[in-house]
Amino acid sequence: MDAIKRIWKRLLLATVLLATGCASVAQIDFNALFGTSSPQKRVENAQLNNQFVQQAEFVHKEVEPILNSRCVVCHACYDAPCQLKMTSSEGIERGASKEKVYQGTRLVAATPNRLFVDAFTPEAWRQRGFYPMLNERNQTPEANTQASVLARMLTLKQMHPLPEDKILDKRFDFSLDRVQQCASLEEMDKYEQSQPFAGMPYGLPALNANEHQVLMHWLEQGAPLPFAPSLAPEFITEITHWEQFLNGDSLKSQLSARYIYEHLFAFHLYFESLNQPNAQPLFFELVRSRTPPGQALDIIASRRPFDDPKVERVYYRFRPYRATIVDKTHIPYALNTSLLHDWLQWFIDADYSVTQLPSYQPSIAANPFEAFIQIPAGARYRFMLNRAQDTIMGFIKGPVCRGQVALNVINDRFWVYFVTPDYMDDTDFRTFYHSQIENLRMPAEEESTALAVTWVKYAAKQGKYMRARNQFLNEKFKNGQHLTIDGLWDGDDSNDNASLTVFRHFDNATVVKGLVGEPPKTAWIIDYALLERIHYLLVAGFDVYGNYGHQLLTRLYMDFLRMEGESNFLTLLPQEERRKQFSDWYQGAGTQLTAFIAGDINTFNQPTGVLYYSDYLKGELYQKLGQKVAKVQPNRYQIENSHLQANSKALLQALGRLKGTQATLLPELTMIMVEPEKAGKAEVFTLVRNSAHRNISSLFNEASNREPAKDDVTLVHGLLGSYPEAFWLVKEQDLPKIVAAVEQMQTEKDYEALLDIAAVRRSDPTFWAFSDKLNQIFFDNHPIESGWLDYNRLQNR
């Protein structure tokens, strides 16, 4: 009898699907065919049901690799299409939403929908407007595929593979702000008719027959989801040790733990002593819980890490990070005995006392200079400086995945140096910062629904701070004293965080250790107050779900912080050269900004203590700064590290000297795989396009400030960046031809011709094979730092 029912259901569905191929679209009654929809609790069942446990090996070994390499590369983070995050079982089970996270025009803050934070069950996500990708009706093989959006998206791709065109036509929209269809099951019949080429993976080659068969078999079986095994005893021991430190009862311990948490909440922590060689470690998140160590976690789901937890006592706990690691959100942070020793020295054993814990009122909690005034500023600065790349990486990889609003406030490439922490041990410096608490307030205290007009208030405070700071420095360095390079941090001759290079790639960015590339147009010198404000503005204080005013305030205030860092750098140049450089950096800037620069930033009038011997003052300063940090310069990205032949490396170095038209024609990030002529492994290089600007003070019309004639590139050995826009696959013996073609480019047609001989386009049948090899090289070479690349920026050229 059951077999007869299944036959009738298939006939009915076939009849309906046939009808949908006609001019009118029929509505399939899925309730009649497969029963009513009800969340299946797959994640929960995976850990309880023996049947799922028996399928675990199949899921982990065959299904998960396909999901990671074919789905996660587009569906991760907040900018995943339709908010479908396929990086975890919980994300797959949550499903998709029609609401956009990145919607910069909203007048009120949106409701946060953070995985693992704001809801934990399929029922809760359905109440928040998420709809299922998997079948949630009767669990039969038939229903599991025909009533599954995921199964139908995969099948649609098999039925309508990519056209045999190297450049895909207008049926494909790859713009980041494209209208997203986000079809639910009930809308799939119409979607399949109107968007036949929109199957998954979208705008990329279809899965091969075996991959498709594996996923369809998995779906037919009810899509059992992968689950993580219990933690091994050695991890529990480490967690107990660190949680004991972070949850001490003294006020000093509680305040220190709060400070540490507010700086590490976005990182992926791992225990260095337990990490296996050449393997990706098990990562953890530091979270706030209502429950103490030893009890089940009860997550405090606040918008920001310093928001009122609404409990008498907060506990800082370790939670395993269960999602697939993707490069764009991955900030690995090693925990080891040396670090714990430093934390004890800076925060617990240091000679200071805590008389009371600070309030969580926004006006206090959003201002670290007031909230943590009892902790010595030197300890706070050393904590951030010790892992400076991670600290800066927080605003690049932390709360956002698409940050043009924040990132069009920085140049495309600049170097970063740091003021020595020894200054923070000076009584005069500590007294000065204490006196500036009111002026150091930031827009984060306005919370997530802010009015942009309050920018005037913070502009005035920043102006007061800069005038007071310049007056303080003028007094501090008079009577023959001068600011010199001695005031910069040299990494204590052992820490390679002493200098950084920041690359901006339009709406995303990368920060790496060391001085990479040719001397840039601008550089920053960061002191404690600047580093702390960058973190509380763009990491701890930024809400991706905030309204237009919140995001605009953040962007406008970051203008001040950039100019402050640049001004610190210029203080090491002669006074006339300072004015000359600022004029060059801010050509055509508005009168209000120009007045601010002249009136507040440039009132430090002490002569430089640096002696110069050439006419190229900035270049000479870069050389002196390079000598200051020479002992801790990493060489990870140098072309010399390549094992290619000497003439090949010379050709690649020539490629890295492109300027003007040839550079402008290139995308922001090109990842190049070179197959050696002689025996050896393929090597990967990244060609970064650096876009030149007359100034970067314009909020909305960035294109009007562009100077394409001054564009250049930086070529590095290895992978750099999370969002590749073009892939090249080059045989070493073909490098002369490829480099010559690049150097001769003048038009878009020339660039297209170059791609014809060098590129693996998104339409290339070999795309996935290339992708697998590229990612595997990344994983093999850098197992701790690596994560899956994101293909949402791949160009169609």
From TrEMBL:
Molecular-function GO term, any one: isomerase activity
UniProt keywords, alphabetically: Isomerase, Signal
Regions that span the bilayer: none
InterPro entries: Fatty_acid_cis-trans_isomerase
Signal peptide span: 1-25
Protein name: Fatty acid cistrans isomerase
Protein species of origin: Shewanella baltica (strain OS155 / ATCC BAA-1091)
